[in-house]
């Protein structure tokens, strides 16, 4: 699997650290309550098909990126910088 | 039809014409007391124990493909009880005890082979951890022995003891651990359940779960609606999709775990051997193939096949540990879809919907758990109370933070297990 880093271009998967579903960008407000935090920290949609997850270009430029890919076929559909995705 | 040595002999002499189908291929009735979604190892063992232990035989097992066609056929067949933390410890101990009587009980050869598992350690710190784990195993009532380097060289003479990067210091042996024939476990439970009146329904995909006023009423399937007083979701690998039909979002992320098998060789590896440093473990099947695997590919996947970086990593680890296998040709590889929970431990619990039960999150532990999981799940479904061996496998432990079973000590976070 090769991931298209928006800064470096297409790179080997081994250069990246996987941080899980991009739900990590939707951090609840501090007083949101236990339910919201459980939803954010533990529970996942876990789709079979298209998903968005967060990767860190550890052995490359150091960017955090949001990759859109298919969990059933391993097709990689695109990637944007996490700071742009979070806006 | 009962299996026996005499029967095999008689059938052999009479052209094998007396064998019958091992189970009935049933069609769905309009209603059941219990509907089990998922005809894999865990679903079939649950059906079996519901019938045998609790006398509940008006049960249907719904399988969207064929019986045992999922993860029970996509693992490395290892059976052990060497967990450390309360919760996992008593549960896997319970499961191993059920394994030990399984063949006699089912009258079915599941080829359970207690050949022993040796987990190697490679530093003073790892040795201390192995001693502590071994003591926990013995406190649980299971067996564990620490092997010195001298003892280890006698039982595993083929390891590379000279390599300096990961020097081998010794190993933790569990003699009662071993392997079993994965398909036969599913078939044996299917036969036992079917004999007791359970309907095993293949090619029947569940498309919806009927819930009225917070109480489960039945399921919608590709072969029509089926009413049920109780419904059990036992579909590890697809838990998130099926639970979503009941409006639930689970603490689960699906990952692929690869495994490999070589061409058949003469017997050379007598145990299950785990490399404590390089994410590698290996055993030899009765057919002669070396069956081995490593770690997750480490990203969410339902593909049932992995990528090359992990293949390379596993092969490197194998060559580091036992260079003698380098001449063996790899025949095939496959991937199982792991229901990964945040703390790497399973869930057997009621759901927020009355009459709907959940069995999921098996992570790396699904195959060895088949008897224990079915036994405890059947108890939960029949009595509405958790079995003592599984009362810590709660769904709400992530929300409350109480009773997390983080065996690897990395924290209850999805991408760390």
TrEMBL record, chain A:
Give coiled-coil spans as residue ranges: none
- Show the GO MF annotations: sarcosine oxidase activity
Query: Sorted alphabetically, which InterPro entries does this protein's record hold?
Result: SoxD, SoxD_sf
**Protein's GO biological process:** tetrahydrofolate metabolic process
| Protein's UniProt name | Sarcosine oxidase subunit delta
The organism named in the record is Roseovarius atlanticus
High-level lineage:
Bacteria, Pseudomonadati, Pseudomonadota, Alphaproteobacteria, Rhodobacterales
UniProtKB/TrEMBL annotation, chain B:
What are the required cofactors?
FAD; FMN
* Entry EC number(s): 1.5.3.24
Q: Note whether Nucleotide-binding occurs among the keywords.
A: yes
Give TM regions.
none
Its keywords, alphabetically, are: Cytoplasm, FAD, Flavoprotein, FMN, Nucleotide-binding, Oxidoreductase
Record-linked PANTHER family:
FAD-DEPENDENT OXIDOREDUCTASE DOMAIN-CONTAINING PROTEIN 1, SARCOSINE DEHYDROGENASE-RELATED
Q: Protein name, please? A: Sarcosine oxidase subunit beta
């Amino acid at each position: 699997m090769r991931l298209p880093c928006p800064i470096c271009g297409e790179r080997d998967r081994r250069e990246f650290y996987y941080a899980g579903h991009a739900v990590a960008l939707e951090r609840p407000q501090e007083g949101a309550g236990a339910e919201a935090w459980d939803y954010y920290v533990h529970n996942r949609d876990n789709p079979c098909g298209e998903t968005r997850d967060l990767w860190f270009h550890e052995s490359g430029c150091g960017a955090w990126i949001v990759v859109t890919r298919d969990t059933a076929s391993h097709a990689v559909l695109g990637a944007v910088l996490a700071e742009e995705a979070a806006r | 039809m009962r299996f026996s040595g005499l029967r095999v002999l008689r059938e052999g002499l009479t052209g094998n014409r007396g064998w019958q189908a091992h189970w009935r291929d049933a069609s769905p009735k309009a209603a059941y007391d219990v509907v089990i979604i998922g005809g894999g190892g865990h679903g079939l063992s649950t059906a079996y124990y519901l019938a045998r232990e609790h006398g509940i035989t008006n049960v249907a097992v719904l399988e969207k493909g064929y019986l045992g066609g999922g993860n029970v056929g996509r693992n490395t067949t290892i059976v052990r009880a060497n967990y450390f933390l309360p919760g996992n410890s008593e549960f896997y101990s319970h499961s191993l005890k059920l394994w030990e009587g399984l063949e006699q009980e089912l009258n079915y050869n599941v080829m359970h082979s207690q050949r022993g598992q040796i987990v190697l350690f490679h530093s003073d710190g790892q040795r201390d951890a192995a001693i502590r784990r071994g003591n926990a195993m013995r406190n649980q009532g299971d067996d564990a022995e620490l092997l010195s380097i001298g003892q280890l060289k006698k039982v595993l003479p083929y390891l590379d003891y000279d390599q300096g990067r990961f020097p081998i210091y010794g190993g933790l042996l569990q003699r009662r651990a071993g392997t079993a024939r994965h398909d036969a476990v599913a078939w044996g439970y299917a036969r036992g359940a079917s004999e007791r009146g359970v309907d095993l329904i293949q090619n029947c995909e569940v498309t919806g779960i009927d819930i009225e006023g917070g109480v489960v009423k039945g399921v919608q399937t590709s072969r029509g609606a089926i009413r049920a007083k109780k419904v059990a979701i036992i579909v590890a690998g697809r838990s998130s999709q099926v639970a979503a039909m009941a409006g639930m979002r689970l603490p689960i992320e699906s990952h692929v775990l690869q495994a490999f098998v070589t061409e058949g060789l003469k017997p050379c590896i007598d145990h299950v051997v785990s490399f404590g440093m390089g994410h590698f473990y290996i055993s030899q099947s009765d057919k002669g193939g070396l069956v081995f695997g490593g770690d997750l590919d480490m990203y969410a996947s339902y593909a049932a096949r992995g990528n090359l970086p992990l293949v390379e990593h596993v092969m490197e680890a194998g060559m580091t540990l036992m260079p003698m296998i380098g001449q063996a040709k790899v025949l095939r590889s496959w991937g199982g879809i792991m229901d990964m929970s945040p703390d790497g431990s399973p869930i057997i619990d009621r759901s927020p919907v009355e009459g709907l039960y959940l069995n999921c999150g098996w992570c790396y532990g699904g195959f060895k758990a088949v008897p224990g999981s079915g036994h405890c799940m059947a108890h939960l479904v029949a009595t509405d109370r958790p079995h003592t061996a599984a009362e810590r496998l709660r769904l709400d432990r992530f929300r409350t933070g109480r009773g997390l079973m983080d065996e690897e000590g990395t924290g209850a976070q999805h991408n760390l297990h």
